[in-house]
Amino acid sequence: MKYKSIFCLLILPVSLFLFSFIQHSGTWTSRFLSINKDGSIKYHPDEKGNTIPDFSGVGYHHGLKNIPKLKVVKTLNPVKGDAGKMIQNAINEVSALPADANGHRGAIFLTKGDYSIAGTLTIETSGIVLRGAGSEGDATRLIASGKGLRSLLKIQGKGKITEIPGTRVQITDQYVPTGAKSFKVSDSKGLKTGDRIILFRPGTDKWIHDLQMDQIVAREGTKQWTGADYNLSYEREILRIQGNTVFIDNPVVMAMDQQYGGGNIFKYEYKGRISEVGIENILFESEYASDTDEDHGWIAADFNHIENGWVTGVTSRFFGYACVSLDGGAKNITVKNSRCLDAKSVITGGKRYSFNNNGQQNLFMDLETTEGRHDYVTGAKTCGPNVFYRCKSRNTHADIGPHHRWASGTLYDNIDTDGEINVQDRGNWGSGHGWAGVTQVVWNCKVKSAAIQNPWVSGKNYSIGLQGQKLSGRLKDKPDGEWEGQDQKGLQPASLFQAQLNARKLTK
């Protein structure tokens, strides 16, 4: 007994020291993953095997290539009057040049000064960069002049995802969890490494019913969801095949469950999609008649039917909708070091989506907004992974997050806003927005307040290390999301995206 007492007296100071050290070091880790000593990540699955997915394979060439610096092949200077025809002619001239081995044609350099544009500029060919001398101070300023609700610059190919006949095979696993990068198929004989495939998750009426989206409290214009409208197509590439197990480049971001139709894969084409187009160092402005004017420039840079493109060092001012908007056919686009400032419109629905994403595997980082509504936002049925990283919003008039109708697989990492981030059942807002999203990860963000809810079925949403008030959401009877470490500073890793990028480098 004497020795036991002496042992307790000795161990007590050590315990107190360790506790004090942990408290004062102020760091903590999430229960959902661990960073190993070598920088690799161990993900901790739930009872069904679901994990937080790897978001690192987004942006230009999945982040595996640096954004290139294309050689200037055409230089333009400001002119009096409308400069739109001059710039469009230069775009058409460079479009006719042969592409090099990397698919690049060259950069059009616009020297500093003002370029008034009465209409819309279009880039419809791969390998072209529109580059200015800067977006601040002595800037290259492209001005959407006069009236007309329009995009100032459209970067757009054509076409759509088209299934290659005879290539569809069934996924045979009863359940493929969120975060998985492999699954079994009925027959892999027609598949090979490098194949571009669609990971197809069918919508079913049973799934809609269990999600309770056929039971939205109706008001005028409310549309109940139906299974046929919620077929989801995720673009992926096969990394390797082992027997009938297929390994893919980007993870499953919504579980594939046989009770809801399971899933398929098939090879696809996207004829007409362009690539390797960049917008650099330009100030976009719109003329406007008043703070609530809506008959003027709406989107500065509007992307669709394109993969592997970029926007860097761009500022927009006074547009009614967005600085950059990526539509459903935009994939592997990096948007960084850019700003959307001082929007001009009525402050209501359908306006001021500062950086808008409806595409796949896109990266938005180091961005800033003022006077927006939905500053970093996804739309209906947006298929991930997608990432918003290290972005700031001030004087915001609505919330950041998935806006409506089931976006899947988005990371909001180190977002700093004086408004809200919400992931919730939006109910009958709009024409029946319903559940905004699943596998939405809000990591180490600073907000005024946030509502993070879990849908009734098919996945979870996460609030980890959030600084700000917790809200109950618009509809109070919905399941709570996965909350961890609210108002607890010192989350490690400070950035999930950066940790995942570092871990991926270890495997290359």
UniProtKB/TrEMBL annotation:
Entries under InterPro entries matching the protein: Pectin_lyas_fold, Pectin_lyase_fold/virulence
SUPFAM superfamilies named among the record's database cross-references: Pectin lyase-like
Gene3D superfamilies cross-referenced by the UniProt entry: Single-stranded right-handed beta-helix, Pectin lyase-like
Name the record gives this protein: Pectate lyase superfamily protein
